[in-house]
Amino acid sequence: MSTVTAPTTGKTTGKQVASDRARAETRLGQKLVAPAIVLMLLVTAFPMLRAIYLSTFDYALTAPDDREFIGLGNYLTALGDPLFWQTTGVTVLYMVVTVAVELVIGFIFAMVMHRVIFARGVIRTSILIPYGIITVVSGFAWQFAFSFQNGFINGWLPFIGDDFNWFGETTPAVVAIMVSEIWKTTPFMSLLLLAGLAQVSEDMVEAAKVDGATWTQRLVKVILPNMRAAIMVAVLFRALDAYRIFDNIFVMTAGAVKTESISFLTYRQTIEQFQLGMGSALSVLLFLSVLLIAFGIVKLFRVDLAQARQES
Q: Cα(162)–Cα(154) distance, rounded to whole angstroms?
C-alpha cells in the first residue's frame, strides 16, 4: 500500500529566506552605522556625562569656589517649580500644533510635487526655499511682519485693527511664533513625505481606482497605509526638532509674555544667570523628554519595517 505525500507549498522556505534576508540586512546596517555611532559617542559622550555631573551640584559661575554637591536637588527644584511645568506646557503646545499643521500642509505640497508634470524642478525648488533660509533670519522677518508699527500682517487682517500688538499677550505671541516655525519647516516635512509617496505602488492606486474607489478612499485605504513608515519618520524628526524650539522664540519675543520653551529656560539659567548646576539639570530633563517623545511616536505608529521593505 503506497502512501501519498502532500506537495509542499514552499511557504516555510519563503519565510525562512525572508527571515535570513532580514537578519543579513540588519547585520549589514549595524556594520554601516557603527562608525557613525562610535564617532557620535566620542563627540557627545563627554558633554553629556559632564552635564549629568554638573547637574548634581549647586554651581554658579559667579561663585566657582562655592560648588556644593546636592545630588538630585536641582532636579527636585526644577520639577517642583511651576515655571518648569508652564514652559513644558508651552513647549508641548508648540510641538503638537506645528507638527500637525506641517503634516497636513506638507502632505499637500508633497502631492503637488509628486503629481506635477510641467516645471517640476521649479515648483520643487520654490517650495523648498523657506527651509534653506537661516532660522534667525526668518525669525527677524516674521517679527517685522507681525509688528504693529510697520508690519503687514495687521493690514492683511483688518478685523483685528492696525494697532493690534501680537507680542503684547501670550496667545497672539505664541501664534506668531508658530506661524514662523510652520513657514520655515513645512518644506522639510513635505520633502520626507514626497519620499514616502514615491514608494507607493501606482499599480495599487490604479487597481483601487478601477474597483470604483473614490479619491478619498484611495487616500485612506491605499496611499496613507503604504506611507506609514515615511510619515513616522517625518513626524519623529519634526516633533523632536519642534520640542527643542529656541531660535524663533529668542528672536521674536526673547521669552517674554510666557512664550519661553524648555530650551529657552535652560539658556536663561545657564547663560544669563550663570547657574551651571540648574542649567545642566534642565538640559538633562530636556534630553530625557526627547527620548520619551521618540519612544512614544515609534510605539504609536507601530511600523513594521519588514513590511515597509515589502517583505513577508
A: 5
Can you tell me the distance from the alpha carbon of 273 to that of 62, in angstroms, rounded to the nearest whole number? 9
- Count of domains observed in the chain: 1
8 A C-beta contact, residue 240 and residue 294: yes
Cβ neighbour number for residue 293 with a 10 Å cutoff: 17
Range of the domain at 242: 83-274+283-301
144: domain CATH number? 1.10.3720.10
**Rounded CA separation 239/253 (Å):** 22
Taking only the tens place, the pLDDT of each residue in 208-260 is: 888 888 888 888 888 888 888 889 999 999 999 999 999 999 999 998 899 99
39 HSE (CA, 13 A, CB side): 5
**Ramachandran angles phi, psi of 164, nearest 5°:** -70, 125
Secondary structure of 257-308 in the HEC alphabet? Answer: CCCCCHHHHHHHHHHHCCEHHHHHHHHHHHHHHHHHHHHHHHHHHCCCHHHH
